[in-house]
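Long-time lurker, first post. I've been practising inverse folding by hand and with some scripts of my own, and I keep getting stuck on stretches where the structure tokens seem ambiguous. Below is the full token string for one chain I'm working on. Before anyone asks, I'm not after the true native sequence, just a reasonable design that respects the backbone. If someone could post their per-position residues I'd love to compare against what I wrote down in my notebook.
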């Protein structure tokens, strides 16, 4: 209970009971010293005209715990794309592709003004016609001791030495001093080989063939035997053709394969054309973008340069191209 007491001059006191809503007046009487208590009760009555609005408290909404926002990751397609790009960038094949592209572009810029089908290969130091896929060389004692491993590993823009014709004999007495070594070492590094004989028209064609086969052991997988005819050697054309015919007939009879006839383009056109059309031909025609010969001619090899520089060989060397693809090349080999 809470009482509020108010003192008034003369001894009067007003006391209000706040919890009961009443007001009590105390008046003192001097004579009898008895307190006359006038008790007034005041009830708090609200004004009839004014209504005190009862404020209703809005219900307190409970705050739901804040949801953690999930961080959105990269789309799976983007991840796959990035992974693919990284694999490409880290792949040695990619750098090989970039390097080849750069080299090809540089060569294109460097060779501006040249025939695009007959451009210079700096490594070989010659111009090479671009229509051919299989390239090779022919060698003799003139090239000296050859490092065949270096020959095989040399490559310039997909051009490399895949085959070699090796001189074996000449006439009826001469054996090339480097033949046995070349014939033994070149196949070891994967170079396909063929042996050739330098023909002397003044000597017996049959005896020359016998001498050649005594020196060379032709085996399966070799290129056919080659007879190199470049001069009349003091004989008339008919005598030369007669001896040459004996040579090729004997070789074919013993090996079962037609030999290849090699000659320069001028000598062939002057003395051989029309006489040995059934034999495969190897024609020498230097420093030209294409072999200028009758389209009906049965040529399979073209010696297009005599000045090639090859790793492992200390002297310039003849450079050749095969007319055909790898299947045709394999079909030409001795079975």
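-- Answer (accepted) --
I ran through it position by position. Result:
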């Amino acid at each position: 209970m809470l009482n509020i007491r108010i003192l008034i001059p003369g001894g009067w006191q007003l006391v209000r009971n706040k919890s009961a809503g009443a007001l009590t007046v105390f008046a003192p009487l001097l004579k009898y010293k008895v307190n006359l208590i006038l008790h007034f009760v005041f009830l708090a009555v609200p004004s009839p005209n004014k209504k005190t609005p009862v404020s209703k408290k809005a219900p307190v909404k409970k705050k739901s715990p804040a949801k953690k926002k999930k961080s959105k990751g990269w789309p799976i397609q983007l991840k796959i794309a990035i992974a693919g790009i990284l694999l490409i960038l880290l792949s040695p094949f990619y750098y090989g592709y970039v390097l080849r592209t750069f080299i090809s572009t540089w060569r294109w810029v460097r060779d501006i003004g040249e025939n695009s089908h007959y451009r210079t290969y700096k490594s070989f130091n010659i111009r090479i016609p671009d229509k051919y896929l299989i390239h090779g060389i022919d060698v003799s004692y003139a090239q000296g001791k050859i490092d065949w491993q270096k020959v095989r590993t040399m490559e310039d823009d997909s051009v490399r030495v895949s085959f070699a014709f090796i001189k074996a004999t000449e006439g009826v007495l001469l054996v090339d001093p480097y033949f046995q070594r070349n014939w033994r070492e070149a196949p070891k590094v994967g170079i396909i080989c063929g042996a050739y004989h330098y023909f002397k028209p003044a000597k017996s064609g049959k005896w020359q063939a016998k001498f050649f086969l005594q020196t060379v052991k032709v085996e399966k997988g070799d290129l056919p035997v080659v007879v190199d005819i470049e001069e009349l050697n003091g004989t008339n054309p008919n005598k030369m053709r007669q001896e040459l015919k004996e040579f090729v007939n004997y070789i074919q009879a013993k090996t079962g394969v037609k030999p290849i006839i090699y000659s320069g383009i001028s000598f062939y056109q002057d003395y051989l054309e029309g006489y040995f059309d059934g034999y495969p031909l190897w024609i020498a025609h230097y420093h030209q973008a294409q072999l200028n010969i009758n389209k009906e001619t049965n040529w399979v090899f073209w010696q297009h340069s005599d000045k090639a520089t090859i790793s492992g060989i200390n002297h310039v060397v003849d450079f050749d191209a095969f007319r055909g693809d790898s299947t045709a090349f394999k079909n030409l080999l001795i079975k």
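A couple of notes from the structure itself: Residues 18-48 have pLDDT under 50 and may be disordered. The chain is about 25% helix and 25% strand. Happy to go over any region you disagree with.
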